[in-house]
């Protein structure tokens, strides 16, 4: 076996860490002893979302390091360790402690540092930068004694920093040297609109300002003096005037650098020394420093492959197009947005009323899209980016691409056929059109399938529409007819059926099938329509009109077990039960000889009940105040709860009372599939709310609402839909969420799968539930009110209807049980006898 | 030759559902589909689920053929021939029926 080589990585930022992750996934990685030197006191964290630190995220939340990453891969991580010197002849690295480490391969991922203009006074107290968590701590501390804050630099990072200062409660100003904000990405007109929007949000913007001096202020700590003679007083100054590559250590060991800094690299990310690689913001490729994370990640992958001889990936530059939300304003920029290409022509559209600005830059022959700028509305970004990146020929009138559609005429959208196989559809996870098509060829038919298979559209979700288009085009090409008809009797989707029933007020299956279907119905459409009718009108499911629609469990209001007996589950809202209640259940179980078990939903399941026993059992339970638990229905099951603030030392709010209220509100709601809730009284989350269809967690600021989680076969963590809610708003949001799900989901589709297939994902769901973008909120609340109003305990209704009870007998013409039902005892309770026990008549229990 | 035995009133069977009757010590599932004016009888034993439950299944129209879907695992059995649509090696006994004076009769 060959001796292991020493690999040293200097820097554990986002790119440095991506390098490690790429490396350990390669087989060859085992031939290296890996040491990582990290200047900061903590390993890699997400600098892209740094500002979320101010909205409550902790350093731990921002961490990019998965549990046990360094230990599991035997990577030696040295925190608080700065590399001082590289000896290229002796192949060693010396740290600030004087420690000397030898390397066979070395990777520089030293990143960049914020450029602070050499203005006199820039080193004064409370003059800070914005890059590390320590910087953020200093900003938070500095803001405490400040009223006014200034950000120097109106670029992307500067505006984000300004938002942070505003959130910290400071009167916030942005001072920009150039005549406009985001000078690199945006043109003059776009910059003006952006400035207006940002000023409206309460941040003062000063462009064309050249800071010459910082001195003592009169009303504030500092006074900034500008070249035009004006001045501005402030308590805190944040420099965000661009970045510079952190290349000092490379300079000291004479690696080749660019004229204005940056470590020169080739397509394999090798520096002028073949054994030394440089990646990320410290590296200079083709005369460019790439200040975005995606190109850095790409370099990390390339370097990991090359260094281990595992592949021939190469770095060939990167597209610097960006789309982001700055202080809630959509900003996007693609390619040559300043029309610098020779002969380039522009089309621009300005809407001052809605504050939208869009521009496209096209080639002289108007055939190709070279660049674009969008402010205030960046919906077209994905479409335009693909056109620009893949040199797709433009439509005859390119301006139609950015003009609002009039008279309902559809905008020209990109035919996905025009895209090459290599076109990157999902940039977050680097998924190409080819990969999506391949997934379809292997059997994927839904957006959910594609997500699970390729992870496209699982990060920001911005490409969801495009992914769907690519998938549908490929399905059509393969001749796969995506038949969404529910069955041979109805050429409609479940959602169509729901809308028809709702809008036309249809109340019976026979009316629906005579108007909209054919034939007589089957085990697919009958229960589906039964469920939709119940969701809409909430009539008694065993009514003569509906009984033939009910599936195995619903039709006898019990859960059929393998031997044809049933299990019985009384509702125990929130899992709270009195000792008397327990005694009743226990006595019933004992009298009827039932097997008892505690369920996962904090209630009690009684097994082995025969058909004729069900009404007798329920008579006793109803008399004692119990209601049906709907364990047999595709409907609300349980609202699991912890004991909450009334007993628990750590409880923040009364989860018990809320869970009981929620269970009583939503019990009986028939839905496309079962629905499970949970409520936790604090963020320790003992009720496991984040694995439920609807989860609620108490916080100091109110209730947090989580949705679309699932345990079971394919676990899914919930998404946070809204936070800090009072109870009234919480219930409104749950009403809207549930009815939107009931209205739009497919048959037997849990909320988790529904969410994975929901176009627009969580953002869209928020728009529907919180912003009411469909204008349905009131209607949803009214409909839910009607369901709550018309609730009935189906078992109470049944035992009070003598004609309904006739069915609860194994034989219509004999008062005998089914002799095929046989039990034996195990661990002190009954269980169904197996075949051998039946044959030998071993220890069978006499059945009454 | 067939000996029809009175089992129950037609109205004892909810439209579009089934019941189980004990006829000559045999468990017989009798169905009253909404799609027909007749009733149909087959053996009540589900040969795949191995339980006496077919009378509790859903009545289904499969391309025009009246069937019952087993309440346990959803295989379809023809109400007229007893054949299992999912497994041609399996078939169950069917019985003649008739309705007289709003009563249901089954021949075994």
Provide a descriptive summary of the structure in words:
Chain A has 848 residues and is of the alpha/beta class. Chain A is built from 25 helices and 38 strands. A five-stranded parallel sheet of chain A has the order 3-2-1-7-19. In chain A, strands 9-16-10-11-12 form a five-stranded parallel sheet. In chain A, strand 14 and strand 15 form a beta hairpin. The longest helix of chain A is centred in the C-terminal third of the chain and has 18 residues. The mean pLDDT of chain A is 91. Chain B is mainly β. In chain B, 0% of the residues lie in helices and 47% in strands. Chain B has a six-stranded antiparallel sheet, with no helix packed on it. In chain B, strands 7-8-9 form a three-stranded antiparallel sheet, with no helix packed on it. In chain B, strand 8 and strand 9 form a beta hairpin. The interface between A and B is large, with 33 and 38 residues.
Topology:
The complex is a heterodimer of chains A (848) and B (108).
Chain A: E1 5-10, H1 14-24, E2 32-37, H2 59-62, H3 69-72, E3 75-78, E4 83-87, E5 92-95, E6 100-102, E7 105-108, E8 112-114, E9 127-129, H4 133-144, E10 148-152, H5 156-167, E11 171-175, H6 188-200, E12 203-206, E13 211-216, E14 222-226, E15 231-234, E16 236-239, E17 243-245, H7 248-252, E18 263-264, E19 276-278, E20 283-284, H8 293-307, E21 322-326, E22 329-335, E23 345-351, E24 356-362, E25 369-375, H9 381-389, E26 424-426, E27 431-432, H10 433-441, H11 447-454, H12 464-477, H13 494-504, H14 509-516, H15 525-537, E28 559-560, E29 566-568, H16 579-591, E30 595-598, E31 604-609, H17 613-623, E32 636-641, H18 655-666, E33 675-680, E34 694-699, E35 702-707, E36 719-725, H19 727-744, H20 751-757, H21 761-769, H22 777-789, H23 794-799, H24 802-805, E37 823-826, E38 829-832, H25 835-840
Parallel strand pairs in A: 1-2, 1-7, 2-3, 7-19, 9-16, 10-11, 10-16, 11-12, 18-20, 32-33, 33-34
Antiparallel strand pairs in A: 4-5, 5-6, 8-17, 13-14, 14-15, 21-22, 22-25, 23-24, 24-25, 26-27, 28-29, 29-31, 30-31, 34-35, 35-36, 37-38
Chain B: E1 4-9, E2 18-23, E3 26-31, E4 40-43, E5 45-46, E6 51-52, E7 58-62, E8 65-69, E9 76-78, E10 94-100, E11 103-107
Antiparallel strand pairs in B: 1-11, 2-3, 3-4, 4-10, 5-6, 7-8, 8-9, 10-11
């Amino acid at each position: 076996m060959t001796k292991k080589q020493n690999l040293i990585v200097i820097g554990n930022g986002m790119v440095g860490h991506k390098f490690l992750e790429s490396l350990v996934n390669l087989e060859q990685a085992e031939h290296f002893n890996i040491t990582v030197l990290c200047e900061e006191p903590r390993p890699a964290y997400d600098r892209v979302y740094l500002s979320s630190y101010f909205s409550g995220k902790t350093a731990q939340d921002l961490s990019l390091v998965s549990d046990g990453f360094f230990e599991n891969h035997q990577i030696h991580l040295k925190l608080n360790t700065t590399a001082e010197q590289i000896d290229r002849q002796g192949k060693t690295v010396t740290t600030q402690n004087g420690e000397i480490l030898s390397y066979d391969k070395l990777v520089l991922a030293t990143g960049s540092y914020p450029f602070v203009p050499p203005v006199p006074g820039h080193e004064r107290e409370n003059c800070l930068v914005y890059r590390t968590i320590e910087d953020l701590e200093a900003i938070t501390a500095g803001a405490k004694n400040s009223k006014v804050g200034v950000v120097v630099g109106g670029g992307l990072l500067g505006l984000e920093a300004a938002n942070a200062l505003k959130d910290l409660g400071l009167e916030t100003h942005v001072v920009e040297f150039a005549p406009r904000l985001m000078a690199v990405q945006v043109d003059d007109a776009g910059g003006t609109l952006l400035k207006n929007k940002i000023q409206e949000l309460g941040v003062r913007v000063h462009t064309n300002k050249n800071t010459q001096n910082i001195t003592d202020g009169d009303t504030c700590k500092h006074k900034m003096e500008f070249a035009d003679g004006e001045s501005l007083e402030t308590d805190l100054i944040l420099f965000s005037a661009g970045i510079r590559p952190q290349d000092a250590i490379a300079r000291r060991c004479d690696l080749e650098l660019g004229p204005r800094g940056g470590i020169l690299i080739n397509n394999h990310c090798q520096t002028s020394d073949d054994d030394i690689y440089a990646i990320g913001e410290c590296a200079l490729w083709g005369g460019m420093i790439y200040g975005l994370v995606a190109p850095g990640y790409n370099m990390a992958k390339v370097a990991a492959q090359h260094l281990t001889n595992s592949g021939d990936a190469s770095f060939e530059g990167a597209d610097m197009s960006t789309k982001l939300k700055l202080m809630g304003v959509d900003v996007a920029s693609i390619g040559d947005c300043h029309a610098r290409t020779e002969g380039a022509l522009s089309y621009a559209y300005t809407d001052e009323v809605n504050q939208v600005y869009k521009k496209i830059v096209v080639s002289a022959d108007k055939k190709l899209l070279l660049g674009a700028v969008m402010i205030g509305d960046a919906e077209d970004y994905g479409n335009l980016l693909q056109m620009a990146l893949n040199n797709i020929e433009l439509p005859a009138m390119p301006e139609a691409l950015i003009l609002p559609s009039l008279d309902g005429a559809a905008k020209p959208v990109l035919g996905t056929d025009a895209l090459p196989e290599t076109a990157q559809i999902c940039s977050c996870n680097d998924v190409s059109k080819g990969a999506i098509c391949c997934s379809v060829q292997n059997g994927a038919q839904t957006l959910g399938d594609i997500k699970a298979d390729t992870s496209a559209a699982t990060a920001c979700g911005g490409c969801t529409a495009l992914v769907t288009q690519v998938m549908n085009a490929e399905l059509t090409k393969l001749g796969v007819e995506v038949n969404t008809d529910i069955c041979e009797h109805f050429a409609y989707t479940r959602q169509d059926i729901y809308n028809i029933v709702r809008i036309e007020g249809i109340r019976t299956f026979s009316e629906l099938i005579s108007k909209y279907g054919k034939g007589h119905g089957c085990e697919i459409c009958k229960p589906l329509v039964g469920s939709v009718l119940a969701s809409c009108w909430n009539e008694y499911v065993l009514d003569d009109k509906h009984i033939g629609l009910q599936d195995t469990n619903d039709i006898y209001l019990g859960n059929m077990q393998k031997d044809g007996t049933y299990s019985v589950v009384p509702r125990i809202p929130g899992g709270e039960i009195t000792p008397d209640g327990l005694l009743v259940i226990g006595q019933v179980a004992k009298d009827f000889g039932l097997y008892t078990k505690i369920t996962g939903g904090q209630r009690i399941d009684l097994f082995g009940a025969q058909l004729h026993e069900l009404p007798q059992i329920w008579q006793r339970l109803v008399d004692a105040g119990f209601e049906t638990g709907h364990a047999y229905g595709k409907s609300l099951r349980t609202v699991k709860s912890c004991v909450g603030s009334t007993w628990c030392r750590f409880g923040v709010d009364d989860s018990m009372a809320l869970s009981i209220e929620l269970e009583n509100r939503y019990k009986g709601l028939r839905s496309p599939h079962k629905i499970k809730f949970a409520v936790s009284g604090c963020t320790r989350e003992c009720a496991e709310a984040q694995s439920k269809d609807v989860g609620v967690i108490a916080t100091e600021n109110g209730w947090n609402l989580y949705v679309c989680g699932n345990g079971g076969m394919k676990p899914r963590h919930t998404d946070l839909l809204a936070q800090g809610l009072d109870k009234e708003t919480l219930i409104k949001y749950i009403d809207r969420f549930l009815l939107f799900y009931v209205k739009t989901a497919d048959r037997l589709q849990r909320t988790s799968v529904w969410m994975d297939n929901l176009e627009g994902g969580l953002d869209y769901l928020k728009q529907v539930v919180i912003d009411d973008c469909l204008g349905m909120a009131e209607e949803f609340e009214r409909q839910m009110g009607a369901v709550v109003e018309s609730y009935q305990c189906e078992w109470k209704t049944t035992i009070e209807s003598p004609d309904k009870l006739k069915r609860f007998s194994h034989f219509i013409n004999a008062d005998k049980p089914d002799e095929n039902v046989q039990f034996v005892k195990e661990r002190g309770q009954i269980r169904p006898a197996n075949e051998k026990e039946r044959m030998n008549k071993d220890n069978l229990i006499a059945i009454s | 030759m067939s000996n029809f035995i009175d089992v129950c009133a037609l109205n004892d069977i909810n439209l579009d559902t089934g019941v189980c009757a004990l006829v000559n010590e045999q468990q017989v599932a009798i169905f009253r589909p909404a799609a027909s004016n007749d009733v149909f009888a087959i053996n009540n034993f589900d040969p795949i689920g191995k339980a006496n439950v077919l009378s509790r299944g859903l009545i289904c129209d499969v391309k025009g053929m009246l069937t019952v879907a087993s309440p346990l695992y959803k295989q379809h059995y023809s109400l007229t021939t007893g054949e299992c649509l999912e497994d041609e090696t399996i078939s169950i006994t069917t019985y003649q029926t008739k309705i007289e004076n709003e009563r249901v009769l089954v021949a075994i």
